[in-house]
């Protein structure tokens, strides 16, 4: 009985000690985990912290290398990089610069001073649009662009020949019908092709429909002013010729009109225009190939004409030759 009593009395105390020991082990394990976590965060903080000592060592080494490089360079070639010091102000010189001597304008053979190069350049300057149009016209007349010149020359010649054979109303009507037949046929062909291929290419002439073909007011004023200047000069010249301001010029004009009466009896206006068109597209090429011979014969004819005019002026009372 006593032994059983002892066993029953000691059994609860052993269970209590086991529970305390288990709780102590759990607390110890949790504390060790917390210590490990703290050591881990400390190591990461130390790894992320910048090493100021190494940075200062690198900066010092760079400064030493820069100083050695500066010492090896000549005095005049010292670099200004990384030099943040304010530059010394240059001493202001009190002496005024001497003015340049004005060169006199060169005197030409006729006693007048020649124009300055700047003024000459301003007078001879040509606008880009005007020079471009002149160059395109020259290229057209000299057959330097064969397809373009051929199209322009052929279309112009065909138009003039059609006007010589038919009336202007018939020519305009036939040309309009021919152009409409081409455009309508092309439009129908493109529509059928798009329906068969099930494509959406749009209108075949969309590029030309969206293009602005109107004449701007600036362009109209420009060409209007130019035409007005030429018209006024023509009116003044006709007034001078008809009112016999210069007798010789009026006589020349009369002879020209007398010759044109014979020309009008042989040709009409359209024939003259056709001959002029052919001459405009053929004469520049011929002159370019045979320039020396043409200039020689032209000089001889010009000299003979001047001699004849001088004799006529000498016989006409009151007619004085012009001073060249």
UniProtKB/TrEMBL annotation:
Keywords linked to the UniProt accession: Endoplasmic reticulum, Membrane, Transmembrane, Transmembrane helix
Cell compartment(s), UniProt: Endoplasmic reticulum membrane
Topology of this chain in the membrane: Multi-pass membrane protein
Principal subcellular localisation of the protein: endoplasmic reticulum
Stretches the record annotates as Disordered: 1-45, 71-106
A GO term from the CC aspect: postsynaptic density
Biased composition (Basic and acidic residues): 25-45, 71-83
UniProt entry tagged with the keyword Plastid: no
Gene3D superfamilies: 1.20.5.2480
Transmembrane segments: 151-177, 255-281
Compositional bias of kind Polar residues: 1-13
InterPro entries: Reticulon, RTN1-4
Reticulon domain span: 137-324
Statement: the UniProt record of this protein carries the keyword Transmembrane: yes
Any Pfam family: Reticulon
Biological processes per GO annotation: brain development; endoplasmic reticulum tubular network formation; neuron differentiation
The name this protein goes by in its record: Reticulon
Lineage: Eukaryota, Metazoa, Chordata, Craniata, Vertebrata
